[in-house]
Amino acid sequence: MQVVGSHWGFPRVGGRDAGGWLTLGVPPGWGLGRGGQSCTGVSLGRGAEGLGWVPSPVTPSSPAALLVTCLLSFLWGQAAAALTETHQAGYCSFYGECGRNPEINVSLLWSPVPCLSNTPARLLKDATLSKLKEVCPQLYTGENATYACCSYTQLVALQLSLAISQAVLTRCPACSENFANIYCQNICSPNQSLFTNVTRFFNRTTILGRQVGVLEYQCFYNQSFADQSYDSCKGVRIPATGGYAITAMCGKYGATLCTSQRWLDFQGDSSNGLAPLDIDFQLVPTNGAIGEGIVPLNSKTWSCGKAISADGEPCSCLDCAESCPQIPAPTPQPPPFKVGSLDGVLFVCCLLFCLLTVLFGAFLVWRCVSRSRQASGEGRQRQRDQLTRSEKLSQATHRVLGEMFRRWGTMVASHPVSVILVSAVVVVGLSCGMVFIQLTTDPVELWSSPDSQARQEKDFYDQNFGPFFRTNQVILTAKGRPSYTYDSLLLGRKNFSGILSMAVLLDLLELQTRLQEIEVWSEKDGRNVTLKDVCYAPLNPNNASATDCCVNSLAQYFQNNRTRLEMTASQTQGSQTGMVDWKDHFLYCVNSPLSFKDITNLQLSCMADYGAPVFPFLAVASGSGKQALTLPHVALPASNPRPPQRSLEDEINRTTAEDIPIFAISYLVIFLYIALALGEYSSCRRILVDSKVTLGLGGILVVLGAVFSSMGFYVVPFLVLAVGADNIFIFVLEYQRSVREPGERREQHIGRVLGTVAPSMLLCSFSEATCFFLGSLTRMPAVRTFALNAALAVLFDFLLQMSMFVALVSLDARRQEAARLDLCCCHRLSKAGCPVRSEGLLRPFMRRIYTPVLLNRAVRALVVSGGGEGEGRGPGCQGRGKDSYMVQYFQYLNQYFMVGLPTYFVTTGGYNFSTGPGMDGVCSSTGCDNNSLIQKIQYATKFSNVSYLAIPASSWVDDFIDWLHPLSRCCRISSEDSQFCPACVPEGRQGRIRAGGCPRTCVPGGGGEGPWGGGGCPEACVPGESRGGSRQGAVQGPMSQGRGREGPGVGRCCLTLCPAPRVTYVFYEQYLTIVNEGLFNLALCLVPTFAVCCVLLGMDLRSGLINLLTIVMILVDTVGAMTLWDISYNAISLINLVTAVGISVEFVSHLTRAFAVSTQPTRLERAKEATINMGSAVFAGVAMTNLPGIVVLAFAKAQLIQIFFFRLNLLITLLGLLHGLVFLPVLLSYFGSVGCGMGCGMQERAQG
């Protein structure tokens, strides 16, 4: 920003040609100016030795042109000779005001230029002297000894200009002072002619006579003076944007490529729309000489790390790196654990595997050497005579449970109809509670605990600041378009992506226009609602039009105007003349998005049509070497809003609803299997009698009744089906295999079978229910709800199986004995014949093939030597369907975007902002505490790889301090009497500015102009003690919408800016603790599994440990397989792992108990018997119940279902089957209980 005459401006870029020479085209002396041709063939240039005459590279194209040029040069030379003839101390080059620059047609502000006046400096008195002391105190040398080259009107204009520019720069006193010093010296220095030289002028006639106005002048600075001034300002930030103030002061180069020369050049370029005339800044080395009496300016400068006065303050760390204390670097993360080049964890696992293999081999050798020679008969007698306490307790436990269930089964089978009616009434009564169910679909409510830190912070934010804005975003790509090279007249050759083409931009503009014109009928309002009715309009919130909506896109660089997008213009840059178009304007705006006018002849603004800047990372996404265009707009939340960013939730609901037929088919397959597989088919003639379709459907109704009774239908279907179907198959198959004893009634037979298998069913169901109840202790809402529903469903399932299903078995047995048809019991088969007992196909296969092969000595050793290991990994994005637009959206975010989420730091109620120390503890301006909140965030941004903070925070406190500054032209109106309310600080630019002692409450007033845009001031005021909270800013997003909480006696305090795109993923907090949560939940589930198994098996610790070990191995192998199959570890995975514990109990516990009650003399024979009898039931009841339905889910569209229902449930089922029917029998054959315990007791009772 540059101040000349009556206004300040932005500099010119590229005022010289590529060689650094300035072509004047005049005879010796000063004349014509840039761009003309020289009749003498010389040019004025800046070389290593200073200013001198050198041969010109430009010559006239013809003798006639040469004659015209020389004639014009002669005529102009008469006036040029008097431009700045005298270069000596005490002389001016120009003085006073001569109206507007006739060469500037488009200017954002009125821009008068000074009058040519190579005369002695004037002695200042009275009002002019007072104004100089106020505006340029560094030039004051005494009451009667102060000379200057500026008039009172120039000082007034200079003061107005400085007020606007320094509203941004005043955060750093040194920068503000250096910037003011540059233009105080240029305009008012009494030695002005020593370092300035007028090169172009114009004549005008007024009532006062003929006047000569200055169009351009040269300004000679010492290189060190320019560099030091620039260095003091290059780090000053604009907190509201998170960027540097120098970005808007360096034109096309931006903050990254800016230098002191480019900084000054841009300020001296009248084409930027703000500078009133051209200034050619010449930076001369310290020892360089120019001649002609010109002495480069080398005025005093102030370092940003030091105070500019005794009572002043240095610039803050945020604006000046020199002011920052030494910040120790964060402790680096420990290097990954490695052993040589091998992963350390893998090495330890391999070492452990080898150790266990060696120990197992040693165990086999010891077992062979110490094996007892005692005969099996003698061993049985010893075992019967010498039972341990544990074995006696096991017998007693089984005897009590068996007798209890036998009597219960006999009673239920004797009164089946009554039991069914009572059970149905209970189920219907409990299911009525489903009318009170409220489905929760909000991810925050599902995955974030109400008492978690992130959830409490979000609730506090929503309560005090309201719901966040709803960001709608469109990402456009243009695949297959080749990149190209554009030779820019301003910036040289640049590579353009194929998406940056006129055709794509026109399509973007058309799409944007169509979206903005969408109308939707509102029943509530009784009219069509358009974008302007719901959009965020930061500069016109009360009466927004279509162009007031906050829409950010590349088309906004052209104010969404097709005519401006298609504009072209001829432009001369140095010695080159060419055409400029939208690409030149785009390049300029990318580097200087805050500019109101570019430096091309297009003379277009970079500001959006709604009055705010469009930052390139919001309009053009660029990542991984690829580019895309974005079209985000921000909508206000409704009065009773859904979650602001709800596309993900809606899309999950949509794709899940589309997959309901897949779920229906999955359940249908399961139902058909249960209905058909329960039948005992002995002959084709009796197939309709021996089938169990009705019984199977009854069993399914029992399971569904349990689910409905637990009021959690959608949560646990597969789990309850697996548990229920397994118990159904075990009971029915045992009944089919059991032979009715002589004199035993059908009801007694059913009771005896139930007494045999019910303890095993109780063991599994009670273990699962207990582990789920304990799992509900987790803080994660979704997991807690699932665990509670699962526990209730398993309990209800067991109770209904013990009552309703036993009654259904009794009725079905009565039907079958009467030879009545299944599904049509009214019809009786006349010649059914006697039923023939059949083992089916599975049990003979297990007895003849599977068990002998599995329990072979070599195979057993091989099975035990194997194991499963795995580890989970981080969260993924797997909630949408394959055909969902959200999948592409998230892919594009990862592929193209390099912008993170905005982060807010909120001070809670009770913090006092009305005191100086209170503000110092938060702000980052001059005089603030180096350990303030904003300063701490600034320090964190220096280590962004650790803190993940990209830019410093923006605080309303800093904006308020800037607003309070005396140099600010913002209007302050008292809310009490509508009178002007001045800043409550001493006059002058130095010193700490705070709000303490302000006699009135001040609110923003209209009118005036400020650096915040929109022709007004920021809505900011200082609250007293904060009752609710105060939001300090966004650090990862470039801009944030700030809204404060009201303090006592203070109106609404806010800084209104256009918010950056933001999605509040509060539920991401789960990933901070999900590993510990998972270990805690799984441990809670495993402990009761072990305890219940031990208790119900009569304190059989060995069987309990084997049971626990197998379940743990299933979980470990599942987690390892998740990594191999690209299944992320997150809350949904954790729910499935908790489910895996329940299903694993079904695979393992039945077989463990069957081994414990076996009457065979040796471990191997007992393992064989358990595998043949119970293994077949587990395979038919658990594995085959789940597998068909799970396989159908592979055809689902939603990735949520495909990954976490199909993949993960398939893994759990297959690994449970593998461990339950392969690893567990082998483990029991080696390490199972020695005595027959419960089995011997059962055998003795049977013989008795």
Q: What is the average per-residue confidence, as pLDDT, rounded to a whole number? A: 76
Strand order, sheet with most strands: 3-4-5
Query: What Rg do the Cα atoms give?
Result: 43 Å
Distance between the termini: 108 Å
Number of helices: 38
Pick out the low-confidence regions.
1-82, 373-384, 636-644, 712-716, 868-881, 983-1029, 1033-1063, 1244-1248
The shape is elongated
Provide the helix percentage.
40-55%
Main beta sheet = 3 strands, antiparallel
Give the DSSP E fraction (strand runs of 2 or more residues).
5-15%
Number of DSSP strand runs: 35
Helix/strand/pairing class, anyone?
A: alpha+beta
Helix-strand layout with pairing:
Elements: E1 2-4, E2 7-9, E3 21-22, E4 42-47, E5 50-55, H1 63-80, E6 94-100, E7 112-116, E8 122-123, H2 126-135, E9 147-148, H3 152-169, H4 173-188, H5 192-195, E10 196-206, E11 209-222, H6 223-233, E12 237-238, E13 243-244, H7 260-267, E14 278-284, E15 338-339, E16 342-343, H8 344-370, H9 376-385, H10 389-414, H11 416-431, H12 443-447, H13 453-465, E17 470-472, E18 475-476, E19 484-488, E20 492-496, H14 502-516, E21 520-522, E22 527-529, H15 531-534, H16 562-565, E23 569-573, E24 576-580, H17 582-591, H18 616-619, E25 620-623, E26 626-630, E27 633-635, H19 647-658, H20 660-677, H21 687-690, H22 693-709, H23 717-737, H24 746-775, H25 781-817, E28 820-821, E29 824-828, H26 842-854, H27 857-865, H28 885-896, E30 904-908, H29 916-920, H30 933-941, H31 944-947, H32 956-964, E31 972-974, E32 1002-1004, E33 1029-1034, E34 1042-1043, E35 1054-1055, H33 1070-1096, H34 1101-1124, H35 1131-1156, H36 1163-1192, H37 1199-1231, H38 1238-1247
Parallel strand pairs: 11-14
Antiparallel strand pairs: 1-2, 3-4, 4-5, 6-7, 8-9, 10-11, 12-13, 15-16, 17-27, 18-26, 19-20, 21-22, 23-24, 25-26, 28-29, 30-33, 31-32, 34-35
Helix pairs in contact: 2-3, 3-4, 4-6, 6-7, 10-24, 10-25, 10-38, 11-22, 11-25, 20-22, 20-36, 22-23, 22-25, 23-24, 23-25, 23-35, 23-36, 24-25, 24-33, 24-35, 25-35, 26-36, 27-37, 33-34, 33-35, 34-35, 34-37, 35-36, 35-37, 36-37
Transmembrane segments: 344-366, 417-439, 660-679, 691-708, 714-733, 753-775, 787-811, 1079-1099, 1105-1125, 1132-1152, 1172-1196, 1208-1228
Keywords: Cholesterol metabolism, Disulfide bond, Glycoprotein, Lipid metabolism, Membrane, Signal, Steroid metabolism, Sterol metabolism, Transmembrane, Transmembrane helix, Transport
Domain SSD: 659-811
